[in-house]
Design brief:
43% of the residues lie in helices and 17% in strands. The strands form 2 sheets. It has a 7-stranded mixed sheet with strand order 3-2-1-4-8-9-7, sandwiched between helices. A two-stranded antiparallel sheet has the order 5-6. It is α/β, with parallel strands linked by helices and 235 residues long.
């Protein structure tokens, strides 16, 4: 039986500070993709905007007052990053869809034809975490993997709390509490997983996990159903 997995790949993962780190990360990603294709696994990858999105929005912000217009700029950056991943994987001859789908219905359809489909954002106001959850639901995946630049979900923000503790197992409801689901959010506030994505996952009974995507071996373990260091989030 063909397995389908969806990965939200943080845009920051494409830009390790050291060039040697970039070379290794992309090589490891290719090797993992080749292994997954050999096993018949299908993977939808939703890529975030990372630094290109932040730079582009900062450049335009003094002249563009429409928040949705700024979001469109960020979405364009996610699609640029998605194209990079798409072409990196296509180069060794992997079965990657030749287009960047603009919505999850199209992406889910393409996953019926290809081992890999890569996309970016879709709609202003929706993060790529939320897009990945939507794609997981529409593609019939059993779980959405959030591969980011942190190793775990923590019980509190580790950037401002030295006593923050990593959590290995959570329910979706508990994740919603940590992410502030249903609570007003301050401007500039961020969470390890977008609360909208968590809300949609709760509604769909979709399991999730959070792991450090800088280590491709962890992503491979999650995709292959092996134990990994990170946070498993159950329904």
């Amino acid at each position: 039986m063909t397995e389908t997995h969806i990965v939200a790949l943080g845009g920051s993962l494409l830009r390790p500070e050291e060039e040697s780190g970039r070379v290794k990360w992309f090589a490891d990603l290719r090797d993992l993709a080749a292994k997954l294709q050999q096993n018949g696994t299908r993977v939808g990858i939703v890529v975030g905007g990372g630094l290109p999105a932040r730079e582009a929005i900062t450049l335009a912000e003094p002249y563009v007052g429409d928040v949705h217009a700024l979001d469109e700029i960020g979405i364009a950056a996610t699609r640029l990053n998605a194209t990079i991943i798409q072409q990196v994987l296509r180069e060794p001859g992997l079965d990657v869809a030749g287009m960047i789908p603009l919505d999850c219905d199209h992406a889910a359809s393409l996953l019926g034809e290809h081992n890999f489909v890569v996309m970016g954002g879709t709609t202003p106001g929706h993060t790529t975490d939320a897009v990945a959850v939507e794609l997981a639901i529409k593609a019939g995946a059993g779980r959405c993997i959030i591969a980011t630049n942190v190793s775990y979900v923590y019980d509190k923000d580790p950037r401002t709390n030295d006593d923050a503790s990593p959590i290995s197992h959570l329910t979706l409801a508990e994740l919603g509490e940590i992410c502030g689901l249903g609570k007003p959010r301050q401007a500039g506030a961020s969470a390890v997983v977008d609360p909208v994505a968590v809300e949609w996952a709760i509604e769909a009974n979709l399991a999730m996990c959070v792991l450090d995507g800088r280590v491709i071996g962890l992503l491979g373990a999650a995709l292959e159903g092996r134990d990994f260091s990170g946070t498993n989030i159950t329904v």
